[in-house]
Amino acid sequence: MDLFKKCHDYYPIVREAKRTGFYPYFRAIDSEPDRRVVIKGKSLLMLGSNNYLGLTTHPKLKEAAINAVRKYGTGCTGSRFLNGTLDLHEQLEHNLAEFMRREDCLCFPTGYQVNLGVISSLLRRDEYVVTDKLDHASIMDGCQLSFGKLKRYMHNDMASLKHVMESLESNAAALIVSDGIFSMDGDIVKLPELLPVARHHHAKVMIDDAHAIGVLGRRGAGTADHFGLEDKVDLVMGTFSKSFATIGGYVVGDREVITFIRHHARALIFSASIPPPAAATVLAALEIIKSEPERRVRLWRNTEKMLKGLKTMGYEIGTAETPVIPLLIGDMTKTINFWHDLYEAGVFANPVVPPAVPPNASLIRTSYMATHTDEDLDEALEILERIGRKRGIIA
Predict the structure, then answer these.
(1) What is the pLDDT of residue 367?
(2) E strand or H helix at 149
(3) 38 vs 18, 33, 221, 351, CA distance in Å?
(4) Which long-range contacts (CB under 8 A, 24 or more apart) does 72-77 make?
(5) Burial code of 199-223, b = ≥16 C-beta within 10 A, e = fewer?
(6) CA atoms of 23 and 26, how far apart (whole Å)
(7) How confident is the model at residue 384 (pLDDT cuts 50, 70, 90)?
(8) In this structure, what are the phi and psi dihedrals at residue 276, rounded to the nearest 5 degrees?
(9) Share of the chain above pLDDT 70, in %
(10) What is the band of 353 on the pLDDT scale with cuts at 50, 70, 90?
(11) How many other C-beta atoms are found inside a 10 Å radius of the C-beta of residue 228?
(12) Virtual CA dihedral for 17, 19, 20, 22, nearest 10 degrees?
């Protein structure tokens, strides 16, 4: 058997998609990742970014990153565990813990590595990790790397969660992990219903707030802030690649728990630390999140406009209630054709097809920013209506 046979078989599929212009991935952007982008000289309205607050081009963030490079250089050349911790990292962890109203914080090189490191370090044999079936892939990978036993419940179905928890051995240690905002469906975890189930079974709760920090809550502190339950969730993770406009991730919680993770998470210990400009960028972004709540107001105004507009047109958007709004199509070929038409019309959106979603559940993922103007959104709605009718997706 040839180990690379699957690679040779797969390559012609990608090559043909690229040749015909129907390859939607790894498209190089030639401009700043803003509300409009340029790809090979073509201007597109960006409806496929996680830049929810529109901070990637903010002058204060750019200035902070540049100043950090001048003071600290371009990188740390080692892991946080050994030579890769700067006073900048410690300041960032202190400020994030304070913002999230937790005792301690630990920063990782990426958000993906947060979930790998936290879950795999905490779960031992005969302990359980219980996840929503639509949790992010990084959560599932963290479960696979742990020695714990994995159980899953139906998406956002608290009766299903209760059934799963009741099926565990009596007094079994368990960690329930859920997305805060689900990254494809755009709905919010039913946290007020989840927490009583967890408490009844003495389980700990971890919320992945990658898409919720800066977006949900009175202070922009995420899902628990949104529901007024900040003191009820044991661990909250977030990323820096969305509202914070750079790269990296973090987890907050009680000091003793974070200390354990700091000394046992292989994804942290064996990875180089986030570079100085990234840490400085997050510190600057955090101050803007705290001092400019009007950005969040604008984001939600834009979200409500698009939710209403897309529903009125007849698009199926499922349970979406956040700046992440999927257009549910089903057929994979129809989805790719729709994506291609949108791209040609000047809209950048993301086609999501199997295996990222189940068969016949393909969709176009759209997402919105605080910096989108009314003119941007009106243009988007006009294009989506015209092409949706052309393709028979809406009547």
Answers:
(1) 98
(2) strand 149-153
(3) 19, 9, 32, 19
(4) 72/276, 73/276, 74/275, 74/276, 74/277, 75/272, 75/275, 75/276, 76/272, 76/273, 76/274, 76/275, 76/276, 77/272
(5) eebebbbbbbbbbbbbbbbebbbbb
(6) 9
(7) very high
(8) -55, -45
(9) 100
(10) very high
(11) 12
(12) 40
Answer CATH for 16-46+293-390 from 3.90.1150.10, 3.40.640.10, 3.40.50.720, 1.20.950.20: 3.90.1150.10
Q: Given this model, what pLDDT does residue 358 score? A: 87
Count how many Cα atoms sit within 13 Å of the Cα of residue 179 in the half-sphere of its side chain.
25
As a whole number, the mean pLDDT across the chain is 97
Q: E strand or H helix at 264, and its extent?
A: helix 255-264
Residues 149-202: tens digit of each pLDDT:
999 999 999 999 999 999 999 889 999 999 999 999 999 999 999 999 999 999
- What class is the 59-291 domain? alpha beta
74, 168, 380 from 352: Cα distances, Å: 35, 34, 19
pTM: 0.96
Which H or E run includes 367?
strand 362-367
